[in-house]
Amino acid sequence: MTEENIAFVLEKLALVGVMIGFSLAVAAYSTWAERKVAAFLQDRLGPNRAGIFGLLQPLADGLKLFSKEEITPKDANKFLFILGPALAMIVACMTGAVIPWSTAFEIGDRVIVPQIADINIGFLYILGVLSLGVYGIMIGAWASNNKYSLMGGLRAASQIISYELPMGLALITILMMTGSLKLSDIVAQQQDNFWFVILQPIGFLIFLICSFAETNRTPFDLPEAENELIGGYHSEYSSMKMGFFLFAEYINMFISSTIIATIYFGGYDIPFVNDVALGESIGANWLAILHFFTLFGKACFFIFFYMWVRWTLPRFRYDQLMDLGWKKLLPLALINMLITGLVILLMNN
Fold first, then answer.
1. d(CA 325, CA 106)
2. Fewest C-beta atoms under 10 Å: which of 74, 194, 256, 281?
3. Model confidence pLDDT, tens digit, residues 181-190
4. What is the DSSP string of 170-226?
5. Is residue 67 within 8 Å of residue 119, measured between CB atoms?
6. Structural contact between residues 239 and 66, judged by C-beta atoms closer than 8 angstroms
7. Surface-to-core class of residue 230, CB atoms within 10 Å of its CB (0-12 exposed, 13-18 middle, 19+ buried)
8. Backbone angles phi, psi at 112, to 5 degrees
9. How is residue 111 annotated by DSSP?
10. Is there a contact between 299 and 265 (Cβ–Cβ < 8 Å)?
11. Global pTM?
12. What is the largest CA-CA distance in the chain?
């Protein structure tokens, strides 16, 4: 391998490490933020003992999970019982590989783009990885040899399959408007024009609702409904195996929020600011830092929105969940796609 190839590989490995570490840190403090948001909405204090404002609470929770006894059910399939949460965690960390986090940094003579893989099938990659996420849940649920876990796994599989269809159709309208599957191209087009939340409000609403279902968040957390299934697919899990399932959910919530911000809210685009002129005045590196915090700020808003909804809306019944996906969102997504195609056709003629 040439020196250039070695430098390229090392750069990508460093980006992978930074992204995984950052995702884990955000997931850890999302647990703290969720309890603080819940406390605020319920007129309570929330975590306030471990560190100032309870900021060390995620570290205390992590130590607690690590120190708990590992229990594997006697009749469980031990290999698959371990593989389930590991697969859920790995797939959750893979989703963010195609997200453009900001514009390029300049370090010496080298230009570093903070995006692990700028592939030309970014949409398909996201949908493919999301569909893999359910395998970790299903494998863990089946391997537990517990009927409640299995029912939770079946619910998760049915739910994700049902809501992937309208989500995919919502993304097709973006493809029709941009002519590209690359997320970097989608962000670039929004920098020069309106954000797609303005041009595709129905598609955004469909994608947002489907994101709740894909991440198993309330009001679509039927796979782990405590009042029906004890704890759902992770009923038999303890210690860090359960921690992996919980962390995977919070990582999925963070990556999902970032994808929503990237596709519909301009990604790292700073609203009402000429990025080119700003870059010339403050330099490329400072602009890249501003772009990163802009995207992260948008993602944090949607993380808060996930939490706000959790403590506002009640859980759906399972038949209501399926009716919403198949009888409402899917026809609405098809109609939205047809209207988008008609508008594009009229505009081109």
1. 45
2. 74
3. 888 889 988 8
4. HHHHHHHHHS---HHHHHHHHHHS--HHHH-HHHHHHHHHHHHHHTT-TTS-GGG-H
5. no
6. yes
7. middle
8. -110, 120
9. E
10. no
11. 0.90
12. 68
Residue 153: its pLDDT value, please? 82
Phi, psi of 51 (to 5 degrees): 85, 175
> How many whole angstroms separate alpha carbon 167 and alpha carbon 207?
5
Establish how many alpha carbons lie within 13 A of residue 240's alpha carbon, considering only the half-sphere containing its beta carbon.
8
Please give the C-alpha separations between residue 98 and each of 9, 88, 126, 224, 261, in angstroms, as whole numbers: 16, 18, 8, 29, 14
Measured distance CA(114)–CA(117) in Å, rounded: 9
Q: Mapping DSSP to helix (H, G, I), strand (E, B) and coil, where does residue 110 land? A: strand
Which amino acid, 243?
A: G
Give mean pLDDT, residues 286-313. Answer: 91
Compute the Cα dihedral for 190, 191, 197, 198 and give only its sign: negative
Contact (Cβ atoms closer than 8 angstroms) between residue 243 and residue 65: yes
- Could you tell me how far CA 338 lies from the centroid of its own chain? 27
Q: How far is CA 45 from CA 35, 36, 53, 54, in A?
A: 9, 7, 9, 10
| Distance separating the N- and C-terminal Cα atoms of the chain | 51
Q: Which tokens sit at 60?
A: 């205390």
Amino acid at 257: S
Question: What digits encode the pLDDT tens for the residues 193-252?
Answer: 889 999 999 999 999 999 998 888 878 887 776 666 666 777 788 788 888 888 888 898
pLDDT of residue 1: 64
Planar angle of CA 95, 183, 259, nearest 5 degrees: 50
Cα separation, 127 vs 151, whole angstroms:
24
Which among 204, 191, 172 is positioned nearest to 266, based on CA atoms? 191
Rounded distance between C-alpha atoms, residue 181 and residue 176, angstroms? 10
Q: What is the mean pLDDT of the chain?
A: 86
Are 137 and 215 spatial neighbours (Cβ–Cβ below 8 Å)?
Answer: no
> What pLDDT was estimated at residue 219?
85
